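Backbone-to-sequence.
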């Protein structure tokens, strides 16, 4: 049995794409830039919000200064609207509760900025105890750097061999590989199955129940 399961947040535990798209489009529109359809954002997210804004800006406008201008508009708006349409994926609350009942420690490792990660986890999963909820933190490299996983392992006092990392993107699979922990890709998230397969994860699942089966082996 695994003693620790680390989850990515966006695209894994929560479907946040509508609120991310709405908030980014708001910021772009405020600055006079063209907006994007919601579905396009599935391929812009995953590497933190600065990279999201760089991808969303038009060609020729992707400067660091413009990214920061978008961020200044985005963050206050998203802080107010990040739970407007976001929802846990079907079966996720039951999965987390079941793992918790088994005594398996749970954690979140996200590239979402820290305060938003904490707010969403507390809002949608109030009955679940997470040993750590780590988002993008100042001075800490973002995924796929393994630092966030190492920080969680240290806090949980769990060995890599007893850990399962669950995510929906190539960034997540690379993070698990870099950290030396078992990797599990989920197909219900933002990225296609082919992106997961390219990193040869230990598992790819289509149903939340399969994660429980893997963790309980």
């Amino acid at each position: 049995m695994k003693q620790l399961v680390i989850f990515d947040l966006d695209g894994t535990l929560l479907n946040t794409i509508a609120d991310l798209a709405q908030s980014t489009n708001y910021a772009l529109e405020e600055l006079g830039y063209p907006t994007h359809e919601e579905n396009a954002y599935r391929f812009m997210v995953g590497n933190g919000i600065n990279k999201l804004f760089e991808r969303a800006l038009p060609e020729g406008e992707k400067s660091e200064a413009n990214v920061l201008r978008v961020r200044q508009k985005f963050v206050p708006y998203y802080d107010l609207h990040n739970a407007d349409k976001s929802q846990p994926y079907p079966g996720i609350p039951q999965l987390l509760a079941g793992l918790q009942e088994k005594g398996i420690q749970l954690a979140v490792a996200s590239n979402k900025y820290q305060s938003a990660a904490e707010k969403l986890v507390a809002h949608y999963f109030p009955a679940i105890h997470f040993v750590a909820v780590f988002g993008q933190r100042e001075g800490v490299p973002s995924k796929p750097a393994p630092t966030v996983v190492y920080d969680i392992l240290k806090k949980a006092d769990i060995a890599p061999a007893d850990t399962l990392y669950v995510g929906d993107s190539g960034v997540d699979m690379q993070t698990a590989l870099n950290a030396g922990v078992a990797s599990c890709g989920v197909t219900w998230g933002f990225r296609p199955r082919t992106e997961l397969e390219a990193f040869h994860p230990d598992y790819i699942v289509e149903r939340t129940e399969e994660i429980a089966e893997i963790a309980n082996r």
